[in-house]
Structure formats: C-alpha cells, structure tokens
C-alpha cells in the first residue's frame, strides 16, 4: 500500500511527500512528482472549483475516478493506493470528466503554479520548443533541488522547514527559467492564460 499526501500549498505538499517516502524507507516519488504535483488535484481547491465552474456532480465523478483512493480533507488531499491501483489511469479517467475548456484552464492554473519547471513534463517541453539540452539542464536543477529537500527532511518531518523547502523550490524554478530562451519564456506566459491567484 502506498500513501501520498498532497497539500494545497507547495511547501506542505513537498514536506508530506518527502516525509512519507522517508518514513516508509522506500524509493521516494519521482523528482517531477515532488516539484510539479498533479494538475488534477487542484480541482479540490474551492476557488479552482469556482473558476472551472465545476458542479457537485462533476466533482463527485472526478472523485469516483480515483476509486476511493483520494480523500480531500480541509487543506489536504490524501491518496491511498492499494494493490495494482494505477494513479496515472485514474488521473486520466478523472480528466475525462472535465470539458476541454475546463482542462485547458486547469493546465493554465497549474502552469501559473509550476512555471518554467513545466519543461520537466515532455508535453510542455514540446509546447515550449525546449531542446534536449534544456530539458537535461532542467532535470539536473530539479534533481539537485529535490536532493537538498531530502537532506533537509532527513531528520524527520518539521513544519518549520516548510519555508526553506519553498525557498529551494523557488530558486530551482528561477534557475530553470534562466535555461529558457526569451521566446520560450514569452510562450510560457501565453500558455499560463489569464492570471489566477492560487
């Protein structure tokens, strides 16, 4: 059984992900998962629900797509995978309950959250026209950031470390932004859509 927790605020998300993997003494989540999270989990935020105009019925269908593996409680989304449950397949099914316009807006909101780190996902690297060299540079920066976070969390979970983790993540995002060419940064701004306060 695997349990991952995604808080609705980045530092806490990373703290819980790192803490869970350290406590379980298993291989931690992939670097991309730690830095980027999954866009679909943003739908559980009240103001994102409003922005996407999600009905209660749509939200229930999204929750049902996760086969009871996802629970949203206050500021936390908890995922509990058992047996051969496939989080990627469940996420794909959940996205199927959004209209194309809702999916597009959700990705815009997610891009506003992750910024240039989005090139760690192949589909966004392609949209930005990122070269293999740029993606590799971004991976090295991202991995160095996650390594520092893991080292910081090695002594166990500590909410006081959240600000330092957030600082590390922001520094990594700035470094990855510097890897992008001016026209790619401009394209990223366009892909982010209408500003949305997270």
How does the SSE layout of this entry go?
Elements: E1 2-7, H1 10-24, H2 31-36, H3 46-52, H4 56-65, E2 70-73, E3 76-81, H5 87-95, H6 100-114, H7 122-128, H8 132-153, H9 162-179, H10 182-191
Antiparallel strand pairs: 1-3, 2-3
Helix pairs in contact: 1-9, 4-5, 8-9
List its traits:
60% helix, three-stranded antiparallel sheet, 198 residues, 10 helices, 3 strands, mainly alpha, single chain
Number of helices: 10
CA-atom Rg in angstroms = 17 Å
Unreliable spans are 7-26
- In the residues, how many domains can be counted? 1
State the separation between the terminal residues, measured CA to CA.
31 Å
Order of helices and strands, N to C? EHHHHEEHHHHHH
Per the principal axes of the C-alpha atoms, what is the gross shape?
globular
- In terms of DSSP E residues, the strand content is 5-15%
Could you say which structural class the secondary elements and strand pairing correspond to? mainly alpha
Major beta sheet, strand line-up:
1-3-2
Nearest-integer average pLDDT: 84
Helix content: 55-70%
């Amino acid at each position: 059984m695997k349990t991952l927790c995604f808080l609705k605020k980045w530092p806490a998300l990373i703290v819980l992900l790192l803490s869970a993997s350290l406590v379980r003494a298993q291989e931690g989540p992939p670097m991309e998962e730690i830095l980027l999270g999954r866009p679909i989990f943003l739908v559980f935020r009240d103001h994102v629900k409003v922005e996407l105009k999600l009905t209660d019925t749509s939200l229930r269908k999204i929750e049902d797509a996760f086969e009871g593996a996802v629970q949203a409680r206050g500021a936390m989304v908890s995922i509990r995978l058992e047996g051969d449950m496939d989080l990627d397949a469940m996420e794909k099914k959940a996205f199927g309950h959004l209209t194309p316009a809702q999916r597009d807006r959700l990705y815009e909101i997610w891009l506003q959250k992750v910024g240039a780190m989005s090139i760690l996902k192949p589909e966004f690297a392609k949209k930005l026209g990122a070269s293999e060299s740029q993606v590799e540079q971004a991976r090295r920066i991202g991995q160095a950031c996650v390594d520092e976070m893991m080292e910081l969390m090695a002594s166990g979970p500590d909410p006081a470390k959240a600000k330092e983790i957030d600082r590390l993540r922001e520094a990594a995002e700035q470094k990855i932004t510097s890897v992008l060419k001016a026209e790619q940064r401009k394209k990223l701004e366009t892909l982010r859509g209408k500003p949305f306060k997270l």
